[in-house]
Amino acid sequence: MFALSPSIDPSVSALAPDFTALSILVQAAPVLRPQVGEEALAQACLDMLQDDFPWAEAHLTQWAEMFKHFGAKPKRTPCSADALRKRVQRDGSMAAIDPIVDLYNAVSIRFAIPVGGENVAAYVGNPRLTRADGSEPFDVYKEGVLSHESPEPGEVVWRDDAGVTCRRWNWRQGVRTRLSIEQTQMWFVLERLPAMPLEALQHAGDMLEQGIQQMMPGAIIERSLLGNINH
């Protein structure tokens, strides 16, 4: 099993002392049932629309307020879970993209939780959640062309030694570490604020793990909690 040690900078802990994340490392195995992702996505959309969790909207509201604390505008750049769920509310479903992306999007939609999926092989050093100084590089496609930008000073970002991997905490992932089913070393991070019960965070992790095992039997999975595990 490969090694990866994600961390949370004290500057982020001071901003969000009750933030908790579930970190899941996956050494992939041959994919035998790629359809698992699309099936999970369809079911998650249905469950969200028909039998949503009572705390779901409160959790997304907490994320919107958290974004405001570091200068982001959640109506323009919402957290990833809010953006996904709004698309489902508008369209009633979501088109499949990639088996592993579909699976972690399904978890995000069902549990109203931002979920990131990363290609570990593309990392330079370990991932860390920190506040940007504004000089860090971030690669993104704009109108189909790869371009580079930098976060705002004070913005909460995930980064490694080479630059930013996700802007505005969990709003937009960079190109360099983007994950697909072809990668063999995967890292997922499920990000929770206190409106979401800690038990629900574990259940979200269970859904992701079970889907991965169904998709690629024999995958090696390790999980750990980051941040405040007492709330």
Describe this structure in words.
This is B3/4 domain-containing protein. Pfam families: B3_4 (PF03483). InterPro entries: B3/B4_tRNA-bd (IPR005146), Phe-tRNA_synthase-like_B3/B4 (IPR020825). The mean pLDDT is about 95. The chain is of the alpha+beta class and about 230 residues long. Helix 2 packs parallel to helix 5 and helix 2 runs antiparallel to helix 6. Strands 1-4-7-8-9 form a five-stranded mixed beta sheet. Strands 3-10-2-11 form a four-stranded antiparallel beta sheet, covered by helices on one side.
Strand order, sheet with most strands: 1-4-7-8-9
Number of DSSP E strands: 11
Average predicted local confidence, pLDDT? 96
Order of helices and strands: EHEHHHHEEEEEEEEHE
Number of helices: 6
Which keywords apply here?
single chain; about 230 residues; alpha+beta; 5-stranded mixed sheet; 4-stranded antiparallel sheet; 6 helices; about 25% strand; B3/B4_tRNA-bd
Break the fold down into its secondary structure elements and pairings.
Elements: E1 7-8, H1 10-15, E2 20-27, H2 35-50, H3 56-69, H4 80-91, H5 99-111, E3 115-119, E4 128-131, E5 138-142, E6 145-149, E7 156-160, E8 163-167, E9 172-173, E10 185-192, H6 198-215, E11 220-227
Parallel strand pairs: 1-4
Antiparallel strand pairs: 2-10, 2-11, 3-10, 4-7, 5-6, 7-8, 8-9
Helix pairs in contact: 2-5, 2-6, 5-6
